[in-house]
Amino acid sequence: MSTSPSPPDSGSYAIAGREEAAAARLQLLAAARYKLAIYLPALSPDMLGSPLELAELRRIATSGRGAEIRLILGNPNAALRMGHRLIDLAQRLSTAIQIRMPSDEETSEATASSAWLLNDTDGYLFLPDAERLEGRAALRDGPGQAPLLLQFERIWERAAPATQLQPLGL
């Protein structure tokens, strides 16, 4: 049983460790309505791969006409070789889940190691170093989310589609 206090409804709070990061991801996914923006340098087996997280991702992807999950993934080939369950979901729901790779000029040292998840209710999870799983999260913090969303949009516009992840139409 976790002894950490529940996160506040507004404002950011600190995240430290695998369990807190997983709990924050699940809360942000559950709070999302139609849209997600996710930036990951690499997709580890436990990142967005639990049955609860995948169920929330499926719910968002099938939530209606405006459903959109955009994922910028630093190494899509590794996720494909690993057989990550998110890749399978993205291939089955390819109209709602889009995966791109950052361009070389967009992969600065600062963004190459960071990870973030943004939802459409002003929630976010930001990890300056994705390997360490320490950062901050908020369920509702528009001013805190805004710079992350702007940076995501800038990287997304220059990112290339991860064509190696598209299902074969045989």
UniProtKB/TrEMBL annotation:
InterPro entries: DUF7931. Residues 18-168 form the DUF7931 domain. This is DUF7931 domain-containing protein. It comes from Dyella caseinilytica.
